[in-house]
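We were asked to recover a plausible sequence for a given structure. The inputs and outputs are reproduced exactly as logged, with field labels preserved.

PROBLEM: sequence recovery
POSITIONS: 438
GIVEN STRUCTURE:
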């Protein structure tokens, strides 16, 4: 048995020649050997022989570690969690762990959040316009931009149907909220549905998906800068609405776009018309109030909203301390793709933007209302095990996330053109050029 090791599928296979025990291993005598268990991981160390058990709670890769201690050698068999392995549970088991009341949608409660957020938006605008002080304006821009983002999240819930069971109510509220911040409701709703249905798939995912190397190598220097050099990726959303991501064509405003099927074109026309109506209203207000006032009241908060949206959506799929897999072909499943998403803690902002940071359960079950996501996540965590990555705790403001963002943009550049399980790779040339430019 000394030449055998547990395989990834929990069977036995020959130990690679480079890792087999020496014919005369420099180990202490038998009476001084023992297996000690740390967190369910057996470790061979000096001591006396004890019983041990190998407990497998998630797919793992066996890793043999050689450590020198004095003149002897300690061998350790450790379980290394492999996030790319199929999970030992299914969607049904996760669903069963979530309390039944978490699936209930309360339209009155949903509407209360809409009323609250709209009241705050108008209150902030009125206060800033009356005070009209350049000390106050930056505070207003940060607060109002965050509230625009909160309105987007509520419209996002309408698009998922988690706002209520009434399709007409969802559509009306969604159009009002999204049009007010220049988002074409149905166009975005449909593409976002595609994102959820194909999350974690290299080619079929819709937003912030990795670029295969062949597409990445064809990008010109300006496009690479816009995608990977801050602050440009945080201003990408309006560009995405008009032209999608590199390697994909179409527009969220064009009913003939390949984003949509024929029976969705009427919805897209409706949303585009609402967007044009809002743009016309803003143009009229600019003529009445003056460009500077509209720049202060609307344009800058809109820019802050865009940065919030790009920051949050990017970090829900990037920036973890360990590389997470992306899938193709037969390796992709809805569950495996959803389990590569990340929860994030935003401190005080959690309540303001309606707990959108509780993202794993939202991606797997987007019909759960936002006000039940935290409870549903807590109930599902024992089933998810290591497939749930506990988010770093935030201070009052989520300033720690800028480190994760910057690190990811410097090393998550492309994935291999082949392989059904792939991980982000780094372009040394891009990293060195961006470093030189600083």
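RECOVERED SEQUENCE:
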């Amino acid at each position: 048995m000394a030449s055998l090791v547990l395989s990834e599928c929990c069977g036995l296979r020959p130990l690679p020649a480079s890792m087999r025990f020496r014919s005369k291993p420099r180990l202490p005598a038998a009476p001084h050997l023992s297996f000690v268990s740390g967190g369910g991981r057996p470790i061979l160390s000096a001591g006396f022989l004890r019983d041990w058990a190998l407990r497998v709670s998630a797919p793992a890769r066996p890793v043999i570690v050689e450590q020198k201690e004095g003149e002897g050698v300690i061998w350790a068999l450790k379980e290394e969690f492999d996030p790319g392995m199929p999970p030992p549970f299914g969607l049904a088991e996760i669903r069963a762990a979530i309390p039944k009341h978490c699936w209930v949608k309360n339209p009155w409660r949903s509407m209360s959040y809409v009323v609250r957020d709209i009241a705050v938006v108008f209150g902030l605008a009125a206060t800033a316009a009356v005070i009209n002080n350049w000390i106050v304006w930056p505070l207003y821009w940060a607060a109002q931009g965050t509230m625009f983002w909160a309105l987007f999240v509520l419209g996002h819930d309408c698009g998922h149907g988690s706002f209520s069971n009434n399709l007409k109510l969802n559509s009306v509220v969604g159009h009002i909220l999204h049009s007010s911040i220049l988002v074409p409701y149905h166009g975005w709703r449909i593409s976002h549905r595609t994102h959820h249905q194909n999350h974690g798939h290299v080619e079929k995912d819709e937003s912030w998906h990795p670029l295969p190397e062949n597409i990445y190598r064809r990008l010109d220097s300006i496009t690479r800068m816009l995608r990977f050099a801050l602050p440009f990726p945080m201003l990408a959303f309006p560009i995405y609405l008009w032209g999608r991501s590199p390697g994909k064509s179409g527009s969220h405003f064009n009913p003939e776009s390949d984003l949509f099927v024929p029976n969705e074109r009427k919805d897209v026309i409706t949303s585009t018309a609402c967007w044009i109506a809002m743009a016309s209203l803003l143009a009229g207000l600019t003529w009445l109030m003056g460009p500077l006032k509209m720049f202060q009241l609307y344009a800058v908060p809109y820019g802050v909203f865009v940065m919030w949206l790009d920051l949050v959506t990017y970090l829900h799929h990037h920036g973890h301390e360990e590389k997470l897999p992306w899938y193709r072909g037969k390796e992709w499943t809805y569950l495996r793709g959803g389990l590569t998403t990340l929860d994030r803690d935003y401190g005080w902002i959690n309540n303001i933007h309606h707990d959108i940071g509780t993202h794993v359960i939202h991606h797997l079950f987007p019909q759960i209302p936002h006000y039940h996501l935290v409870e549903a996540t807590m109930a599902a965590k024992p089933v998810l095990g290591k497939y749930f990555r506990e988010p770093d705790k935030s201070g009052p403001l989520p300033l720690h996330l800028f480190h994760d963002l910057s690190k990811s943009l410097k090393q998550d550049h492309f994935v291999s053109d082949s392989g059904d399980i792939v991980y982000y790779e780094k372009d040394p040339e891009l990293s060195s050029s961006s470093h030189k430019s600083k």
